[in-house]
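Lab notebook, design round three. We kept the backbone fixed and only want residue identities now. Task for the bench partner: fill in a sequence for the structure below.
Input structure tokens:
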């Protein structure tokens, strides 16, 4: 990092400001997000339930369409398998029975192939197995291979049929339907086990002998069907199905079946080739034919019960979906309504709070602060009060009310401190002003006493002028402290006299050129304030102008009142600077601003006085490049001028009024006090004239002296004609202004007719004089630049 890099740049944060989200948006999102989530959940749930309902209806439709042919196919395949076993064992009449069973199987297979066309279901396995039926029939007719292989094919096809029932119609996605469909599948499996027993016994043939493999198959089928009945069928039957099942197993045929199975297990005989069955097996065929029909009826009833439950469940699911959608829609609508009104209520309260806050911040609080600054009382009802509400908006309102209360209390204390400081400053200014007035009186006494000494008189007049400036600064302090300038005037004053009085307050008054273009007068109550305002502007103009330049002040009547314009030849000022200075003139600054601009208090004083007089003061660039100050005094401060009143006279320095008029130097053109003193040693003869009345002392600005008594006479080294003076007014009356007498103060050489000059006179200024003039100009320029640097922040 560069050693000259500013610290502020080094510490500047590079993080971006996060974008603030509006409260309305947050509340809307607070309602939208749960609503969308809830709607999504409802939609997913409804779709799942509808899909489940459609699946149930599809299963019911498929079961009604394909289930019966598939079950018929299974029963016919079981019958054909038994007939094939009997044909293989050589039973009498088995060939015709086999032909009948094969025809029934072919019809059931054709019907199944016609209906099982849905590729999404597992019917294809059964269809592929049926394609091998002709091949295995040929093996059975030719007795090719072992009988167990041919019979195993029929068992495999029947197993595929039961597997289709288990996959397609068990309703595993629904626990209730799965529980209801479990006995159906188990009953099919138990029926298959009984059918296998029938096939094994048919394979024994007339001899009643079984191989060891056949006997094992019989025992396995018997154990499986008993387990299925006891564990998977009976516990899951409904009361109605339970009663029907009990009638079946309690029938004589079922009892015969059970007795034969027990006899085979306990009454068989082992022989060399296998097992010899007991004689009781002869009654198996008729008993099986009877109870199998009853078991088929039970299977059909169980299947129809499951289908009915599936249809009812599908309807329940659709009704549940309807209630879900309706309830969710109502709930979402209620949420939207609640969120809408809640958001509206919160935003309305926040908007009311915002409007009250803006009103308090922009209208109430500034008015309260202004009243406190003016020393006026404040109505407590005008300020927001703490309501004690417990909700969030009420707590924010109470917090703002407390903040306003603290702010008002702070401004009240500041106003009290400012008022106290103003009283303190006013007291100090008043006491100091009294001392300055006494000093001015003492200075005038010294002037009257030692007026014969020109050098001492010049220094006394300079001290008098500085004391007048000191008094003006004390009056500035009094004005800024909130006091008023004392005004001893009781009679209106002409504008010309007012301009002269204002110019007399400036140290460099000789550079001021006055022009009163209209005859009018000013109210006596505003004379001191107007004079002080103009004196501050004139002092500012003389200090910021080159030392040898003139400052012009002119007054004339305009539409809005009296216009007083002060124009100088000072340096150029930027438009921004003019705007800043005009702002100081039009607004009373706080003490903090005064402290930062302690060297520029004149503009603040002018602003205070303009506010008291209801006048406007505007600074702008003049046509000469300097600054022009325009003061507009309202017509309420003006009065008509008496046309018989004496006219304005040109002011003369006090030295010229109390001392004899000097004789003009033949080649020099100086007008300073020192030049006057040097020329007084060689007075010019004066014409004889009547004796003048007793002279009245005048100030350095040409105004009547502050004293009412006549000054002490001053002895001159050589008798010279005295200037025209006005008589002393009567005691208690306002002293009359001196009037100029034509040709009184003019030099003797100028009284004679001027001869027309034919040759231009050369410049008689010496190089030293030119250098002195240039040094004075540079000094004035440096002074102006220093003042401008002090104004920079």
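Proposed sequence:
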């Amino acid at each position: 990092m560069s050693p000259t890099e500013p610290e502020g740049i080094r510490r500047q944060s590079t993080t971006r400001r996060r974008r603030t989200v509006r409260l309305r948006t947050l509340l809307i999102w607070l309602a939208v997000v749960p609503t969308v989530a809830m709607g999504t959940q409802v939609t997913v749930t409804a779709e799942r339930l509808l899909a489940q309902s459609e699946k149930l209806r599809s299963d019911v439709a498929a079961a009604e369409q394909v289930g019966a042919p598939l079950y018929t196919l299974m029963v016919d395949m079981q019958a054909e398998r038994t007939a094939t076993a009997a044909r293989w064992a050589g039973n009498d009449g088995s060939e015709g029975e086999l032909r009948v069973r094969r025809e029934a199987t072919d019809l059931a297979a054709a019907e199944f192939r016609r209906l099982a066309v849905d590729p999404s279901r597992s019917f294809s396995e059964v269809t592929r197995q049926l394609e091998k039926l002709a091949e295995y029939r040929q093996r059975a007719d030719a007795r090719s291979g072992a009988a167990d292989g041919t019979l195993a094919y029929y068992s495999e096809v029947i197993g595929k049929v039961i597997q289709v029932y288990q996959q397609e119609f068990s309703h595993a996605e629904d626990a209730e339907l799965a529980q209801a469909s479990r006995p159906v599948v188990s009953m099919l499996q138990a029926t298959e086990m009984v059918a296998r027993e029938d096939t094994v016994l048919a394979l024994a043939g007339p001899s009643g002998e079984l191989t060891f493999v056949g006997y094992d198959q019989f025992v396995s089928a018997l154990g499986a069907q008993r387990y299925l009945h006891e564990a998977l069928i009976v516990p899951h039957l409904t009361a109605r199905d339970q009663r029907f099942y009990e009638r079946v197993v309690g029938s004589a045929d079922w009892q015969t079946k059970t007795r034969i199975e027990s006899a085979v297990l306990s009454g068989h005989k082992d022989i060399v080739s296998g097992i010899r069955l007991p004689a009781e097996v002869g009654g198996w065929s008729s008993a099986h034919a009877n109870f199998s029909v009853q078991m088929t009826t039970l299977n059909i009833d169980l299947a129809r019960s499951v289908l009915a439950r599936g249809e009812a469940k599908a309807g329940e699911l659709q009704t549940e979906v309807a209630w879900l959608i309706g309830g969710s829609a109502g709930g979402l609508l209620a949420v939207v309504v609640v969120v809408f009104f809640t958001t509206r209520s919160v935003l309305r309260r926040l908007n009311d709070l915002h409007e009250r806050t803006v009103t308090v911040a922009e209208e109430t609080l500034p008015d309260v602060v202004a009243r406190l600054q003016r020393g006026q009382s404040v109505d407590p009802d005008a300020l927001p009060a703490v309501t004690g509400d417990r909700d969030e908006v009420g707590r924010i309102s109470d917090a703002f009310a407390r903040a306003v209360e603290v702010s008002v209390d702070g401004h009240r204390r500041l106003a009290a401190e400012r008022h106290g400081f103003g009283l303190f400053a006013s007291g100090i200014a008043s006491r100091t002003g009294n001392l300055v007035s006494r000093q001015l009186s003492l200075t005038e006494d010294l002037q009257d006493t030692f007026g014969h000494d020109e050098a001492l008189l010049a220094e006394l007049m300079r001290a008098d002028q500085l004391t007048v400036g000191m008094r003006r600064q004390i009056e500035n302090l009094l004005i800024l402290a909130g006091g008023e300038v004392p005004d001893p005037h009781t009679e209106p004053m002409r504008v010309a006299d007012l301009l002269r009085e204002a110019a007399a307050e400036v140290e460099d008054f000789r550079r001021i050129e006055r022009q009163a273009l209209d005859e009018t007068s000013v109210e006596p109550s505003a004379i001191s304030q107007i004079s002080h305002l103009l004196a501050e502007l004139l002092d500012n103009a003389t200090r910021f102008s080159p030392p040898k330049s003139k400052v012009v002040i002119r007054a004339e009547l305009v539409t809005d009142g009296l216009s007083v314009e002060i124009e100088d030849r000072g340096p150029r000022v930027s438009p921004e600077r003019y705007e800043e200075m005009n702002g100081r003139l039009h607004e009373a600054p706080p003490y903090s601003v005064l402290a930062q601009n302690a060297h520029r208090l004149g503009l603040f004083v002018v602003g205070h006085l303009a506010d008291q007089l209801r006048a406007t003061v505007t600074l702008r660039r003049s046509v000469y490049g300097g600054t022009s100050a325009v003061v507009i005094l309202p017509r309420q401060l003006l009065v008509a001028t008496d046309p018989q009143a004496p006219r304005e006279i040109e002011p003369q320095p006090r030295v010229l009024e109390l001392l004899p008029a000097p004789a003009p130097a033949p080649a020099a053109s100086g007008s300073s006090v020192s030049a006057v003193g040097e020329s007084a040693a060689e007075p010019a003869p004066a014409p004889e004239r009547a004796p003048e009345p007793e002279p009245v002392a005048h100030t350095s600005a040409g105004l009547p002296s502050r004293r009412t008594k006549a000054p002490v006479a001053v002895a001159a080294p050589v008798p010279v004609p005295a200037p025209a003076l006005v008589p002393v007014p009567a005691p208690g009356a306002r002293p009359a202004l001196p009037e100029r007498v034509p040709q009184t103060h003019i030099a003797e050489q100028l009284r004679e007719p001027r001869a027309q000059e034919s040759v231009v006179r050369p410049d008689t200024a010496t190089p030293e004089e030119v250098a002195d003039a240039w040094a004075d100009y540079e000094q004035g320029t440096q002074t102006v630049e220093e003042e401008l640097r002090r104004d920079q922040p």
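Keep this in mind before ordering anything: The first helix runs from residue 7 to 10.
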